[in-house]
Amino acid sequence: MHVRNNISPRLYWRTTLLLWLLALQWLALASAAEVQGVRIWPSPNQTRLVLDMNQEVDFSYFSLTEPDRLVVDVNQAQFRANLNALQLDDTGISGIRHGTRDQGIRIVLDLQQPMHGRVFALPPNEQHPHRLVIDLEFSEPESPLAVQPGEQAPPVERRMDTSGQRDLIIVIDPGHGGEDPGAIGPRGTREKDVVLSVSNHLFRLLEAEPGYRPVMVRTNDYFISLADRRNRARRERADVFLSIHADAFHNAQANGASVYALSGRGATSTTAAYLAEQENRADVIGGVGGISLEGKDDMLREVLVDLSMSANRSESLRLGDDILRQMGRVARLHKDTVEQANFAVLRSPDVPSVLIEVGFISNPAEEMRLRDDAYRQQLARSIFNGIKEYSWRNPPEGSYVYQQKNAPDRAASGFGEYVVREGDTLSAIAIRHQTSVAELLRLNNMTNANSIRIGQRLRVPNV
Ligand SMILES: [Zn+2]
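Above: query sequence and zinc ion SMILES. Below: predicted holo structure tokens.
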């Protein structure tokens, strides 16, 4: 029997169209963006939530109140990440939900309090793919603190001792953080971790020292923009600003510690120029939001800032020189003079500022040293000694250090220099300066009492 395939042309076209539509939909799904990973970075001022995307996405967002929520819609996307491992303590977020919406996803962040939300995309870099960044600020943005050039910073509370002398304020800026790991060593050591550790050691040393008050710009693993770092120095009315790094160089042979001060003109070496470029990229990697701050006024502001900066450039060089010489006692130096380069983080008028590279993390041997906490402590102590030397030489009036230096009975409160002569022993020098061998070893970052040599300049307490 013959069965006739009785399909009308109309039905045939309908079926074909339907199949085409299904195919198109399948294609759309296959090419949909995916949220592949989620990271969270809480900091004192804000929480940053980062979504790893496999491609560029189209998104929108809005806030809702009662209860407070931030809603992010991502078009043509699917959620493939696992939220269970996400630690929400201290983030201001009580929960994260997501669901499908049209062809995309809707992500809802339940907030514990009103927070100012901002969402932006970041392009891929060496470490991460395309990203969608959600910033939630706890309070008003801190930008009003930015002091305009030429303006006086608002007075801040300063710790006074009983005699009314103020502490010197040392602002320590551990480089990078959060989404921006900084340089990564051959064994995977991350610059952001190394510099936070050195900075913490330095903080503790300064904290224990009378007359000094250290302030940490970053106390944990989160991102801060370069502008906010230097604004912090101004807001604190810092006496000294130190940005601490451990960078990579394209040449793995490069090694040694270096100290940089800001230069108005070109960098003093190609390494300095290269590193300045890398550091300044931190904002792009960490993401300042891809939002233009003040447009063309920025340019004018930079010029003004740079002009007002020149006054203390020589102070920065002096500070850098003191630190570099102290670091030379524990670390190999990359160059034995302070280098000058155009680091954005250093553009803080009126505050002597230096950028310290504690070493090149890209050098395998140096990376190994930087992984050693005892070495990081030594580095911190040498920086600490450099700061003390600098501030002791020319302390600001009204400070505790100034008072100590100029007090008539400043027994053992200041430092002098002693040049080792033939036949000297460390114990004899200690007795002559009414101190102990242990104290001399500490002051000079030495471990071995027998390692002195003729002509060596030792730091000794003034008698
Ligand atoms: Zn760095």
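Residues 175-176, 182, 191, 245, 247, 279 surround zinc ion (CB under 6 Å).
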